[in-house]
Write a structure and sequence with these properties.
- The protein has a single domain (5-257), classed as Nucleoside phosphorylase domain (Rossmann fold, 3-Layer(aba) Sandwich), CATH 3.40.50.
- It is globular and about 50 Å long.
- It has 5 helices and 11 strands.
- Strands 1, 2, 3, 4, 5, 6, 7, 8, 9, 10 and 11 form an 11-stranded mixed sheet that branches.
- With 264 residues, the protein is an alpha/beta fold.
- The longest helix is centred in the C-terminal third of the chain and has 25 residues, at 222-246.
- It starts with a strand and ends in an 18-residue tail after the last helix.
- It has helices at residues 65-75, 132-145, 166-174, 184-193, 222-246; strands at residues 5-9, 21-23, 36-41, 44-50, 79-88, 98-99, 103-107, 149-150, 154-158, 179-181, 197-207.
- Helix 1 (65-75) runs parallel beside helix 4 and helix 2 packs across helix 5.
Length: 264
């Protein structure tokens, strides 16, 4: 039971490959969100786990992020794709487009967001939280496929499960941030703590409530998010297939060395 590439499925994205075998993984942090489905694709072993569970029973603030990431590491995964449904904070970031985020702003609280509670003090660098090699790969594949793309962006991660007020959303927009989501933190940092490469693919499903103008007048709804995500699931799968096929076994980034400068 091994895998080299992991995928966390977001809202509306609960399965990826056929002919899978499902495994229940135990971790020191409790159970992951669901059984992990493992399958072969183009000579690579892929592990897939829906963040919210296959029936979407786990809200974002209750996801056991440490268990999810640890389970992937336990399987041998060294690269993780983290697609997610996300809202737009800027008018030019249109619904149905992909944003390959390069930064995040954390507005969550109370989540288990480190594997290192002592006795060794560990300060992981978050300056560039997403793997540059995987970001470049996904960006190139997006371009080759002709998908609407933003090559960089900051995702502000809110606690959930509620959506933002108009005032909060306007604040985020005025700060210049492009994307809003509830699950990107602490997933990427936990992957970094274990030396795993991680890339975010934000699929824009809605416009957040702080945007002004006629087409942005209706507040975001759960139904709208799922509708747009379902309409674009095939494009997301196509992008993931292309990116996974292009991945080579050798990593040419420094993600696996993240602990070298993190400890006293």
């Amino acid at each position: 039971m091994e895998a080299e590439i992991g995928i966390f499925g977001g809202s509306g994205f609960y399965r990826f490959l056929d002919n899978v075998k499902e495994y229940k993984i135990e971790t020191p942090y409790g159970p992951p969100s669901d059984k992990i489905a493992i399958a072969d694709f183009k000579g690579k072993r892929i592990a897939f786990l829906p963040r919210h569970g296959k029936e979407h029973t786990i809200p974002p603030h209750m996801i056991n992020y440490r268990a999810n990431v640890y389970a992937m590491s336990k399987l041998g995964v060294n690269r993780i794709f983290g697609p997610c449904a996300a809202g737009s904070l800027q008018a030019h970031v249109r619904r149905g487009s992909f944003v390959i985020c390069d930064q995040f702003v954390d507005r969550t609280w109370g989540r288990g967001d480190t594997f290192y509670d002592g006795p060794i003090t560990t300060h992981i660098s978050a300056a560039d939280p997403y793997c540059p090699e995987m970001r470049k790969l996904v960006i190139n594949k997006c371009k080759e496929l002709g998908f609407s793309l933003h090559e960089q962006g900051t995702v502000v991660v809110i606690q959930g499960p509620r959506f933002s007020t108009r005032s909060e959303s306007r604040w985020f927009t005025k700060m210049g941030w492009e994307v809003i989501n509830m699950t990107q933190y602490p997933e990427t940092i936990l992957a970094r703590e274990l030396g795993i490469c991680y890339v975010n693919i934000s699929l824009i499903t809605d416009y957040d409530v702080g945007l002004e103008g006629e087409e942005f007048i209706n507040p975001v709804s759960h139904e709208e998010v799922f509708k747009v995500f379902n309409e674009n699931n095939d494009r997301l799968r196509t992008l993931l297939y292309a990116a996974i096929e292009a991945i080579t076994s050798r990593r040419n980034c420094s993600c696996e060395e993240s602990l070298l400068t993190a400890r006293f």
